[in-house]
Amino acid sequence: MLPEKLIFDYSVPKTLLIKLSGDWQISAGLLSTNEVTSQLNSHPDIVQINISVSQELKWDSGLISFLLKLIRECGHKNINVAREGLPQEAQKLLSLALKVHEKNISSQKVREAFLEKTGEKFLQIIESSRSGLEFLGDIAVSFGRLITGKSYFRWDDFMLIVQKCGVDTLLLVSLISLLVGMILAFVGSIQLKMFGAQIFISDIVGIAMVRVLSAVMTGIIVSGRIGASFAAELGMMQANEEIDALKTLGVSPVEFLVIPRILALVIMMPVLTIYADLMGVLGGFIISAGMLNLNPVEYLNHTQQAVKLSYVWVGLIHSLVFGVIVAVAGCLRGIECERNAAGVGIATTSAVVTGITGIVIATAIITYICQFLGV
Amino acid sequence: MDSTVQPVIEVRDLDLGYNDYVVMRNLSFSVNKGDIFIVMGVNGCGKSTLLKSLIGLKTPTKGKVLYYGKSFWDEDETGQQNIMRRFGVLYQGGALWSSLTVGENISLPLQLYTKLSCQQIQEVVALKLSLVGLEGCEDLFPSGISGGMRKRASLARAIALDPDIIFFDEPSSGLDPINARKLDDLILELRDSLGATVVVVTHELASIFAVGNNSVFLDMESKAMIAAGDPKVLLADSKDPRVIQFLTRARVQGA
Asked: Are A163 and A126 contained in the same domain?
């Protein structure tokens, strides 16, 4: 029969002597402290535990793990565990393990209750709205300074951003708008064919693209491409302390980095939207003239009659608002970015999500206002 | 020491922290003109947080930071900017603006705060670059130069406006011993040549003894400064085991 690993001795009053023997290596399995706990429960007067070991004790981390659990449990019950009876090496390992443990406790987060978590989340939302508003205020002040000629504006940077917002997104805008125009023509033809009114495809494509769809599609493309890159650029600058360097120089990061980006996007968005309008109409034209056998001249004439100038203005207002939303979302997320690589990733994703959500909400609001005004 | 001389920087009863978490308590020390003042301590003890409070990036929980007798955190924005204009900062990673060339990085503060013409600015930029041993590197981008060169270029930017105080955050981090030594020599030369006061946050022993003539030692456990004075004197006279252990790289007792 294998020898008992744990032998309990109560010969000294208020003291439990635990004699350890046998195989305490990990390969023999880890022993739980239940046996000791039940001994302690049946002898509530115990205030001290002494440990002795037998000559033939075999041990490794298995023993240390057991003793750690024991020491922690006894700590809760205010029972002192004397380690003097243990082998020297085990004592050293134990103090090392306990040292790490004590440090970890101080940095450990306390488990929060559901209500506490909800409250915390709510406070976070308030804090993030407050910082968002503060950021908008900063932008307004910086614009004021720009208009009065008091702020420092780097035209080179501005032109580069304009180029990035415009030329670099042109191909993507062309492709998406052309395809959306084609899809609209196809879908419209399914119903209109039944009434022999296929020529009205030009109205559907023209009005839908010019009033809202071009601006929305361009906004989404720009949010994914430009808004995300704004967040990543500013986020990296935050991580590399470049924004700190600007602040200590007395330069407002909003004036130096955010204003040129917002201006560039606000200028380029309407241009891109007009271009997307043309591409969308072209898409509808290709399908109608090429596949649905409509008269090309008649199609173009119909489009011209259907699309009023006020629709173009509505589209342009959409695009201006989207430009501001995407640029502000990208820059805000970049400036708020945490100073590490993961933070930059989160900022980028968050910029796109905020941008697209903002675009959809703004579209709903503008559409309602236009309905209300009868435009 | 002449007690009538006003310290350049005076820190009084400063408490630092993040929300409810206390980083340091009751910091009080002063930095005199021409000092190379070392802020030392182990990783995570709050050296960089203290630096952020000194350079105006982090509001302290309590206490004052005085520059030439003016309390930085009690000044309005303009007053703070006027003080900030008197110091240059060398950040740990250099923090050169990555979209600008080395030359543009150094010329930006000059464009903002001086009335020099473009030609004159180019001349000053060339001078600052030659001071740090980077002559002719104006047109290089930060991504195209080595870590040591980035530190030097960043130092050239920090001294662009001839500041009265230069802050260094871990200047030797990421540098080999030879380049670290060169940077130490450069710090000494710039202090002597510009007449600047220097504050260095570091835990590099070689740098501490090579350049420092005054210091504070921050202790993470007690969240307080536990020693102050010339690092060489601290090494010789300090009785505090934590200071001795740090300054001699001694092994932890009982480990």
From this structure: no
Any domain includes A71: yes
Q: Do B93 and A241 touch (CB under 8 A)?
A: yes
Contact list in A for residue B110 (CB cut-off 8 A) is: none
Residues spanned by the domain of A138:
111-151
Regarding whether A250 and A353 lie in a shared domain, the answer is yes
Burial class (CB in 10 A: 0-12, 13-18, 19+), A44: exposed
DSSP letter assigned to residue B172: T
Locate the chain A residue with the closest alpha carbon to B80.
Answer: A250
pLDDT by residue for chain B (255 residues), tens digit each? Answer: 444 577 999 999 999 998 888 899 999 999 999 999 999 998 888 898 999 999 999 999 999 999 999 999 999 988 998 898 889 999 988 899 988 999 999 999 998 888 888 988 998 898 888 888 888 889 999 988 888 899 999 999 998 888 999 999 999 888 888 888 888 988 888 888 888 899 999 988 999 999 999 999 999 888 899 999 999 999 998 888 889 889 888 765 544
Min Cα separation A266/chain B (Å): 22
Whether residues A121 and A197 fall in one domain: no
Cβ-in-10-Å burial (0-12, 13-18, 19+) of A294 comes to: buried
Does residue A123 sit at the B interface (CB-CB below 8 Å)? no
